[in-house]
Amino acid sequence: MLTGRMMDFPLTLTHFLERARSYYAAQEIVSRKPDKSLHRYTYADFHKRVCQLANALTRLGVKPGDRVASLSWNHHQHLEVYFGVPAMGAVMHTLNLRLHPNDLGYIARHAEDTVIVVDRSLLPLVEKFEKAAGSLKHVIVIPDDGPVPEGRLDYEQLLAAESPTFEFPRLDENSAAMLCYTSGTTGNPKGVLFSHRSIVLHTLVCCLPEVLGLKESDTVLAVVPMFHAAAWGLPFDALLTGAKQVLPGPHLDPQSLLELMQNEKVTVAGGVPTIWLGILAQLDREPGKWDLGRMRHMVIGGSAAPPALIDGFRKRHGQNVLHAWGMTEMNPVGTLARLKGDLHTASPETQLDAYASQGYSVPFVETRHVSDTGEILPWDGKAMGELEVRGPMVAASYYGDEGKDRFTKDGWFKTGDVVTIDPAGYLHITDRSKDVIKSGGEWISSVALENALMAHPSVLEAAVFAGRHPKWDERPLAAVVFKPGQEATKAELTAHLEKQFAKWWLPDDILFVTQIPRTSTGKFLKMKLREDYGDHLMKASVAS
Ligand code: AMP
């Protein structure tokens, strides 16, 4: 082999920090506090405080490879921890503030966190699991909504005592930078350990014009929590490109977000479908109230974005929606629904199909789908199978080596998502493998039925799940939440579905509920629906 003669320069996050300080010193980071006031500072201020934090953590004994946890909303101090911890060679571990204390205790112990940085407003939660966490030596409290209690380390005081310069070490690009646990609905959560290299590659890929296409003139709003799959990498993308960052703190209601988008002139925002469903409903209620003229695109992912949501934003509010699919195990963005080739000139309906699909792979994510019997399926838009992925931003194993069965012998990761792939490479997720509905041995797509129900004008949200059935084994059941002040009968909703689906696909019953149970990261928790209503049809058949 003739070896290339290029420098062996590591791909690490330290470069992001240096670049922000050298080229984008005056760029702004704006974050919202619990009292709704805004905190503003520049990348230059941010850089100084990241150095102060690295000095403070070093003084507390944090060494390369140590896990430093965060339990915080999206705000500037959380961003400082995001960069300061990996740049000093330690590992940033984001804890999900929506989890039960027992789960947090399990995760913190599993990760062997030695330090936790927590918002004062969330300290009561830490108090419930800090003993169970086992190895915690320091709890550092960010005074977000009031003074830090006696006897606890105060984040601001720690930083104030330190020098604003820090000699960041030259790190190996394969060293661990960040630890994120999956939001798994079954079994224990599993840890995914991102390397500096994978985060850097992911950032470069996401900033490409055909992906998120971020640039210095953008203003990025990460609504997606920084504790969920690294906020899809948005903080990294923004820092590398020198874009302005806006962080919403704990205020995630549509009104607060719309205010922030308008006043801070946001151009790119990312969040899960629930967030955007709320925003769309608000815009529909008060059209013309908010000036979102600077928005370039709204990024939607984390669970399937209903076509009616994408269409509603496009047609009624002139907003460009980008549907993305990914997983924590993938750093996390895997595919994105942008038009390509003939689709640029296709009919609006065909374009909507593409926008509502999960899109095609970003560079360096390779995909295939495989049948139950292990056969690799064709990209014909029909064959359904489990999606497998590989690439330099895909986990090679879980932290602690659990879940080995998710990795194939020939080097692919099994996603657990059931998909079709069309000839142009666009993915269509039809289900999570564990949520598949098999009726009389035939398979019914819950996602397709949900999307159709959510296209009904009265329906805010709908989840379709398997109900046990004495004859067919499983039959689809739907849980529906209406928009405020709206209603429809079961017969009306069934008639609406009949236009699109074969009779045997139609749900056997439609349950009207006030909310659909969700996972800690906002996905429909179908396991809970199955637990609560799974026997509904058995009972009905006994009664009839
Ligand atoms: P997480 O690791 O919490 O981000 O969860 C990853 C899982 O969320 C994927 O395996 C999918 O099941 C689901 N998911 C993420 N994005 C989408 C999407 N755009 N459409 C459908 N499912 C999605």
TrEMBL record:
GO biological process: fatty acid metabolic process
Pfam families, per the entry: AMP-binding, AMP-binding_C
GO MF: ligase activity
Source organism (scientific name): Corallococcus coralloides (strain ATCC 25202 / DSM 2259 / NBRC 100086 / M2)
Gene giving rise to this polypeptide: alkK
CDD domains to which the protein is assigned, alphabetical: ttLC_FACS_AlkK_like (cd12119)
Entry keyword set: Fatty acid metabolism, Ligase, Lipid metabolism
Recorded family membership: Belongs to the ATP-dependent AMP-binding enzyme family.
Residue ranges occupied by any AMP-binding enzyme C-terminal domain in the UniProt entry: 449-523
Gene3D superfamilies linked to this entry: 3.30.300.30, N-terminal domain of ligase-like
NCBIfam families reported for this sequence: PRK06187.1 (NF004837)
UniProt keyword Iron-sulfur, yes or no: no
Location of the AMP-dependent synthetase/ligase domain: 31-399
Name by which UniProt lists this protein: Medium-chain fatty acid--CoA ligase
